[in-house]
Amino acid sequence: MTTLKTLLRQGPGPRLAFLPDSDSEQIAETLVAFANAEGGTVVLGVHANGTIGEMLMEEEAEGALRTALSLCRPPVLTEWIQEQTPAGAVVLLRVERSSELHMLADGRALMRTGSENRPMSGAELQILTANKSMGDFETSPVDGAHREDLDETMIEEYLEKRQQRNPRGTPMPKDKLLAQIGAITADGTPTVSGMLLFGKEPQIYLPQSRTIFVKFADTQPRGPEGSFGYGRREEIGGPLARIIERAWRVIWEEMDKKAIVKGLQREEQIEYPPFAVREALVNAVCHRDYRLRGSSIEIRMYTDRLELISPGGLPAFITVDNIVDEHYSRNPRLVNGLYQWGYIEELGLGIDRMIEDMVAAGHPPPVFDAKSHRFTVKLYNKKDPSRIVPQWEQNMNERQIKAMQYVQNNGAITNREYRDLCPHVTAETLRLDLVDLVERGVLLKIGDKRGTRYIMK
Question: Least C-beta-crowded within 10 Å: which of 43, 79, 80, 217?
C-alpha cells in the first residue's frame, strides 16, 4: 500500500497534491481537477516537503471534506485513508478518474496539469465532454451478447496475470471480479470492454475492433509490380490481447532483418526498434475510439516507413505538442485490462522511450499526425549510421558520459580526475560508476592502487 513516505518522495504532480490546510474550496478544486483527468491522491495536513501543516482532528477533516464535496457538481467519489505520523495524523483522499464531467458550484471546470489545477478552455471542455461519455460506452451492455460469449481461457489467463501483478490481492469469485472491472453487468451481460478483452469472437458484435495489416512494395500504395495495390493483406481479429500478439507477429515477419558479425558475435539488425513498434501498436489498440463503427485500426507497411492509424482523434486535451508530457486514457478499463496482461508497463513513459529507441537506432523520431477523425504514428526507417547511439552509451548516467568524454579527450581517466569532474558526488558512487563501465566492456582498468587508470577498451 502507498505510504506517506512514498508520496513525499514522489512530490506534487499530475496525480498527487499536498494541501496542508483544511481549505474546503482548495480541496474541492483539486478533487474536481483529478476526477476530470487521470485521478490522483490528495494529502491533507502536510506540506510537500514533509512538514506537518494544520493539525486535523478526524471530525474536522471529515467536515472539510463534506463541505468540499458539496461544492462539486456532481460530487466526486473519494476513498478516505488516515495515516498516523510522529507529528500527528494526515489524511489521504484517493480520487479515481471519473466517467462524468465535474464542475464547481461557481461553474468552473478544472483540469489537473502538471502540479496545478487549471481552468479548462471552451474547446477543451467540449472535447472532454465528448470523451467522458466513452467511459459509459465501455460499460454499456453489448446487444444480443450473453455470458457464454466470453472465452473462459482468456478470463483465466487474465486472472493469472492479475494475480502475478498483485500477489497480495485477495482473490474473489470470477464473475464478481468481472462485474467489478466493468466486464459484465449485474445480470451477467458482457459489456463493450468485457467483449473486447474476453470475447470469443468480439468482431461479431463489434466489427470495428478488428485490425487490418497491409504491406506495399513502394513508398506509395502500390503492389509488387508497381500497380496500385498491395503485397500482403491480413485481417486480424479476436480479443484485444490476441490482436496485439497476432499483429506483432505479422509485422515481425515482414520487417527486414539482417545478421552482421562483430568480432566473434553474430548480431541481428532489425528494420525498426521492437519496443517502438510494439508501443505504437498497443497505443493504437488501447486508445482508439471504439464508438466509430465504420473504421478499423490500420497498419500500413511501406518500403520507407511503418504507419499505424487509429480511428478517432486525440482524446480530451491531448495534442501533438503535449503528447509526451500529458496523459489521458480514452478507454481506462481497456487500458487497465491490458496493463494487467503486461502489455503496458509504465503508464505515460512509452512515448518517451519510443522516441529514444528510434533516435538511438539512427532513425528520425516518430512522426505524430493528428486529425479530428484519426491519429497516425509514422516510423521511418531512414537509418543514418552516423546517428546510431551505441547500446552501452544509451544507459549511461550523466557522470559516466562526462568520464567517457574525458577519456576520449585525454586517453585515460583516474579516480582523482573523476572526482575533480564530479566534486559533489561521493567517492564510492564514482568508484561504482567506473566499475560499471568496466563490467560492460566499455573501459579497461590498468594498474593497481594509486596507479590505477581507465582507458577505452
Answer: 79
Q: What is the pTM of this model?
A: 0.63
What topology does CATH give the domain 391-456?
Arc Repressor Mutant, subunit A (1.10.10)
Pick from 185, 163, 167: nearest CA to 176:
185
Q: Show me where the domains of the chain are located.
A: 4-120, 122-388, 391-456
> CB pairs under 8 A, 24+ apart, for 422-427?
425/399
With b meaning 16 or more CB within 10 Å and e meaning fewer, what string describes 282-297? Answer: bbbbbbbbbeeeebbb
DSSP strand pairing (40-44 vs 16-19): parallel
Domain 4-120 falls in which CATH fold? 3.30.950
What is the chain's pLDDT, residue by residue, as a tens digit (457 residues)? 457 777 888 888 888 999 988 889 999 999 999 998 888 999 988 888 888 777 566 677 788 889 999 999 888 989 888 877 666 677 889 998 887 788 898 889 998 988 899 998 877 776 777 666 555 789 999 999 999 999 999 999 999 999 888 887 778 899 999 999 999 999 999 999 999 999 999 999 999 999 999 999 888 876 556 566 678 899 999 999 999 999 999 999 999 887 665 555 556 778 999 999 999 999 999 989 898 888 899 999 999 999 999 998 887 777 787 777 777 778 889 999 999 998 886 555 678 888 888 888 888 899 999 887 889 999 999 866 555 555 555 567 778 888 888 888 888 899 889 988 888 888 888 888 888 888 888 888 887 777 788 887 7
